[in-house]
Design a protein that fits this description.
Number of strands: 24
Shape: globular
CATH superfamily of the largest domain: Aldehyde Dehydrogenase, Chain A, domain 1
Bound molecules: nicotinamide-adenine-dinucleotide
Structural class: alpha/beta
Number of helices: 16
Largest sheet: 7 strands, mixed
Strand order of the largest sheet: 15-18-19-14-13-21-22
CATH class of the largest domain: Alpha Beta
């Protein structure tokens, strides 16, 4: 890639009905690692642009749905091939715009390619069942049909993978889509969109509008023609979308925040446990819904683990995420940094102690570990969404699981142990959508269902894996007499 491509300012345009729409760009996004590097300029959609996008999607629904699933799958497979061919360039752009390291960005793009490939193959998968009918002269079967126009609203922290894990099953199932990504990542979204355009997605099937959540996002949520809304983001915004969607009887899928914990039991090797905790807490700068935000250790075992956590954290290299030696990039925005530092300051004022990190320069916050964290404090219960790890002490294995389950969230939960009984009891008792035994809390396989419990999800439909198709289709039952 040339130097000019690496520093190029991307002008982002809405994509509606197969056309790039020229609107004044009012939003600028600079590189979180270098505020002098202007990455993109993007427009802020008003309700009119969103309505045009929904109308274009509505017009495209029938012809797209009338194609065979294999024909739709072929477009998605081609988008996978094109994304794979542009992987290095798009990973670089993702890093410039969002701030995760180049290795993390490359991993995300690779995951998106695998997702597209997986859902393209689902076009060949059976969708219904044949049922024995009470009437011997009736052939009774079920099939699944597309829901129609779907609205996808996505966050900034996985700007390639999250749109893809919604788009791919939605498109293969025969829906048309309006995507409203986070306004922090417009250029990365446009690069992903270009892959679908080059792959030959028909006009109106995939529309993308950029802008604020409160205006563009809300317009999509409120539009009566949008039959289903799939949202990933914070629990507060998700609650509002849930209420608005319920009022107009729209189908809604919400995947939201987390306060994930890793329980380290006394039989665990401290260095191996610390490695899982540190990678889970500080990978992706802690800006993952599945990040390890709490470590729970049994009383008497704390010091052994703390020493290992501090030693492993010291290996992290914070800096320019485009530099291949860097293992942790900056926080995404000033606002997120203020949130992270605010939680740390509040915890320190309440008696917690820093054992690592705690200071920031620019948007680079050192990987931060706190001990003596009170279990009722804000930092022990609320999502931080930054490189901050709290170590909490439990009195017993049962107390550890109760502590793990005591927040409003239930996305991922981990345990480190070699004891089968402890591991299986944990898998049964931890109230989370995803359980990790001797594995870090972030990271999922593309073919496995993903989603949370309680305030982490509305829990009706799981994303990813084969279950994703359930949200994007309705069951139709057919009685055929002969
Ligand atoms: P956010 O809730 O601020 O925004 C998410 C999206 O919603 C953005 O596109 C935003 O513009 C839009 N939005 C905001 N207000 C809206 C409204 N009133 N109506 C419609 N849309 C609106 O979240 P964020 O800061 O972009 O992302 C971080 C959050 O996402 C964290 O809480 C994280 O845990 C969560 N997240 C969850 C998952 C998961 O799968 N569970 C994955 C990644 C991130």
């Amino acid at each position: 890639m040339s130097v000019s491509e690496m520093t190029q300012v991307r002008d982002v345009r809405h994509f509606v009905g197969g056309a790039w729409i020229d609107r004044e760009s009012t939003e600028s996004r600079t590189n979180p690692a270098d505020p002098t590097d202007l990455v993109s300029r993007a427009p802020d959609a008003d309700r009119g642009v969103v309505a045009e996008a929904v109308e274009a999607a509505q017009e495209a629904t029938h012809p797209w749905g009338a194609l065979s699933a294999q024909e739709r799958g072929a477009v998605v497979a081609e988008a996978a091939r094109i994304l794979d061919g542009r992987a290095a360039e798009i990973a670089q752009l993702l890093t410039r715009e969002e701030g995760k390291t180049l290795a993390e960005a490359a991993g995300e793009v690779d995951r998106a390619v695998r997702m597209l490939t997986f859902y393209a193959a689902q076009a060949w998968h059976p969708l219904g069942a044949t049922l024995p009918s009470a009437d011997g002269r009736t052939h009774l079967y079920t099939t699944r049909v597309p829901v129609g126009v779907v609205g996808l609203i996505t966050p900034w922290n996985f700007p390639v993978a999250i749109p893809v894990w919604k788009l791919a099953p939605a498109l293969v199932a025969g829906n048309s889509v309006v995507l409203k990504p986070s306004s922090y990542v417009p250029a990365t979204t446009q690069a992903l969109l270009e892959c679908f355009v080059e792959a030959g997605i028909p006009a109106g099937v995939l529309n993308v509008v950029y802008g604020s959540g409160s205006r563009a996002g809300q317009a999509l949520v409120d539009d009566e023609r949008v039959a289903a809304l799939s949202f990933t983001g914070s629990s507060g915004v998700g609650r509002g979308i849930n209420l608005a969607a319920a009022a107009r009887m729209a189908r809604v899928q919400l995947e939201m925040g987390g306060k994930n914990a890793m329980v380290v039991l006394p039989d665990a090797d401290p260095a191996a446990a610390a490695d899982l905790c540190v990678r889970g807490a500080f990978g992706l700068t802690g800006q993952a819904c599945t990040a390890t935000s709490r470590v729970i250790v049994l009383r008497g075992d704390e010091h052994r683990l703390l020493d290992a956590l501090v030693a492993r954290t010291a290996e992290i290299v914070t800096g320019d995420p485009l530099d291949p030696r860097t293992t942790m990039g900056p926080v995404v925005t000033d606002r997120q940094l203020a949130t992270d530092v605010g939680y740390v300051d509040q915890a320190l004022a309440a008696g917690a102690e820093l054992v690592a990190g705690g200071t920031a320069e620019g948007l680079f916050l050192e990987p931060t570990i706190l001990r003596n964290v009170h279990r009722d404090s804000a930092i022990a219960n609320e999502e931080v969404f930054g490189p901050v790890l709290s170590v909490l002490v439990a009195d017993s294995r049962e107390d550890a699981v109760n502590l793990l389950n005591s927040t409003e969230y239930g996305l991922t939960a981990g345990v480190v142990t070699n004891d089968v009984e402890s591991a299986m009891s944990f898998a049964r008792d931890a109230d989370a959508g995803v359980i990790k035994i001797n594995r870090q809390t972030p990271g999922t396989d593309v073919n496995a269902p993903f989603g949370g419990n309680r305030s982490s999800s509305n829990g009706l439909f799981r994303e990813q894996g084969l279950t994703a198709t359930e949200f994007f289709t309705r069951v139709k039952t057919v009685y055929l007499g002969y």
